[in-house]
């Protein structure tokens, strides 16, 4: 966009990339880098959330922060405009640039029917078996239609401000999108999460939803001192990857043109409005059980597909500003932005420098709290983008997540693991 031209609009143009405009090595205080390196890194990233990008050139930047922190010997911050692609696209680009020889996580079709075929034991039972399967199929279809209609109505009511979340500790104030965001993270054990998954016969995503609900509940009741009998429902905008094949894909396959490409580059995502319950449970596994029920209900709906389609239609008919305004209204009337994404199962290196962690996040939305989970090797990075004025005790909030996972993992000890029964179900549910 030519920002000097009055009324200029955005447009795609071929351009020559000047690397000096995109590779940035900031001049930071050496004393601060040596005394408080972690805080210096956080402060610098927070400052980026207040700086607009230059629309007269390609909307991406690499910030090289060449000083050691508690996690690594150096950091590389990649800032990109969301119009360039979603998390799956950009992560696949990173892997291709870093170490294209690495094997990406095995993917499977997103939706696999969970109805098991009924094998007739005798010719006389064939007709009865077919009728049972047909009846189950009809009931499932009717439930899918009903749940989709209900979710679409609630989604539309939220987008036009008829439904709004009440003010809580987690709800962003007016103008939260213009306030600086601080990006903080903690490392969680993927093995612990998978252990709970196998015990509960659920998905990794279900476990993360349960951990999040438990952590937010711990934080809320610790900060307010209110009775644990209280049950508060807050809603999150849940980002869903709509590609038919979940997981990561090679950059070449994503860049392949054609309508038949199921993993194409870009923003292939939709939204769900997902509730979180702020409440106290004596049994930590109750948080996972409730998350499983909520997630199972949402999986029996086409809400995310509808939101993607409606956004495309509104953009084509009314323009990008109308679609952005509706999206902003949805965000403003919910409490949390939530997402998780699968990463490489093996370590990758960038020019022989091993990448120790990957921590994606986002800013510019009217939220005081955004929650991302990113798996990589045998860890899961929890990344929070927070309004520090609203969450001054951010270390306490991070520890609530760590402690919630620990308690849920301990509660799962001694219970039988039923991995075999879950193996087929796991492939039916992709990552957010």
TrEMBL record:
> Would the keyword Acyltransferase turn up in this protein's UniProt record?
yes
GO MF annotations in UniProt: diacylglycerol O-acyltransferase activity; long-chain-alcohol O-fatty-acyltransferase activity; O-acyltransferase activity
Pathway the protein takes part in: Lipid metabolism; Glycerolipid metabolism; triacylglycerol biosynthesis
User: InterPro entries under this entry?
Assistant: O-acyltransferase_WSD1-like, O-acyltransferase_WSD1_C, O-acyltransferase_WSD1_N
Which GO biological process entries does UniProt record here? triglyceride biosynthetic process
**GO CC annotation, single:** endoplasmic reticulum membrane
* Record bears the keyword Signal: no
Main localization category: membrane
Q: What residues does the O-acyltransferase WSD1 C-terminal domain cover?
A: 265-408
- Recorded catalytic activity of this chain's protein: a long chain fatty alcohol + a fatty acyl-CoA = a long-chain alcohol wax ester + CoA; an acyl-CoA + a 1,2-diacyl-sn-glycerol = a triacyl-sn-glycerol + CoA
* Keywords attached to this entry: Acyltransferase, Endoplasmic reticulum, Transferase
Q: Where in the cell is it found?
A: Cell membrane; Endoplasmic reticulum membrane
Superkingdom assignment? Eukaryota
Q: Topology relative to the membrane, per the entry?
A: Single-pass membrane protein
Signal peptide residues on this chain, from the entry's feature table: none
Give residue ranges for domain O-acyltransferase WSD1-like N-terminal.
12-207
Q: Tell me which PANTHER family the record gives.
A: DIACYLGLYCEROL O-ACYLTRANSFERASE, O-ACYLTRANSFERASE (WSD1-LIKE) FAMILY PROTEIN
Q: Can you tell me which family this protein belongs to?
A: In the N-terminal section; belongs to the long-chain O-acyltransferase family.
What name does UniProt use for this protein? Diacylglycerol O-acyltransferase
Q: What is the lineage of its organism?
A: Eukaryota, Viridiplantae, Streptophyta, Embryophyta, Tracheophyta
């Amino acid at each position: 966009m030519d920002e000097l031209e009055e009324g200029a609009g955005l447009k795609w143009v071929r351009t020559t990339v000047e690397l000096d405009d995109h590779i940035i090595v900031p001049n930071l205080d050496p004393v601060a880098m040596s005394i408080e390196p972690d805080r210096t890194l956080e402060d610098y990233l927070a400052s980026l959330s207040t700086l607009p990008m230059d629309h007269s050139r390609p909307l991406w930047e690499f910030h090289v922060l060449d000083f050691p922190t508690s996690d690594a010997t150096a950091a590389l911050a990649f800032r990109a405009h969301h119009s360039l692609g979603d998390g799956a696209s950009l992560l696949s680009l990173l892997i291709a640039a870093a170490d294209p020889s690495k094997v990406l996580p095995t993917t499977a079709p997103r939706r696999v029917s969970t109805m098991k075929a009924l094998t007739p034991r005798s010719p006389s039972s064939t007709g009865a078996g077919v009728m049972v399967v047909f009846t189950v199929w009809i009931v499932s279809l009717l439930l899918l239609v009903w749940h989709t209609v209900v979710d679409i109505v609630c989604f539309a009511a939220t987008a036009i401000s008829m439904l709004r979340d009440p003010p809580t500790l987690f709800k962003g104030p007016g103008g939260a999108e213009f306030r600086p965001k601080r990006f903080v993270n903690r490392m969680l054990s993927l093995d612990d999460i998978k252990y709970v998954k196998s015990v509960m016969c659920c998905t990794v995503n279900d476990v993360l939803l349960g951990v999040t609900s438990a952590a937010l509940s711990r934080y809320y009741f610790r900060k307010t001192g209110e009775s644990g009998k209280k049950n508060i429902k807050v809603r999150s905008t849940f980002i869903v990857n709509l590609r038919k094949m979940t997981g990561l894909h090679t950059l070449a396959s994503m860049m392949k043109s054609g309508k038949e490409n199921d993993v194409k580059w870009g923003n292939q995502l939709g939204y769900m409005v997902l509730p979180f319950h702020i409440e106290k449970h004596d049994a930590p596994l109750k948080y996972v059980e409730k998350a499983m029920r909520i997630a199972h209900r949402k999986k029996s709906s086409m809400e995310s597909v509808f939101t993607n389609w409606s956004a495309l239609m509104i953009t084509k008919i009314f323009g990008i500003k109308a679609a952005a305004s509706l999206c902003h209204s949805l965000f403003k009337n919910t409490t949390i932005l939530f997402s998780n994404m699968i990463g490489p199962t093996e370590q990758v290196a960038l020019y022989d420098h091993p990448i120790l962690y990957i921590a994606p996040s986002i800013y510019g939305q009217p939220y005081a709290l955004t929650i991302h989970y990113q798996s990589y090797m045998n860890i899961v990075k929890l990344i929070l983008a927070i309004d520090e004025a609203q969450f001054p005790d951010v270390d306490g909030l991070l520890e609530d997540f760590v402690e919630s996972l620990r308690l849920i993992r301990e509660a799962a000890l001694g219970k039988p693991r039923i991995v075999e029964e879950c193996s087929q179900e796991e492939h039916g549910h992709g990552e957010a």
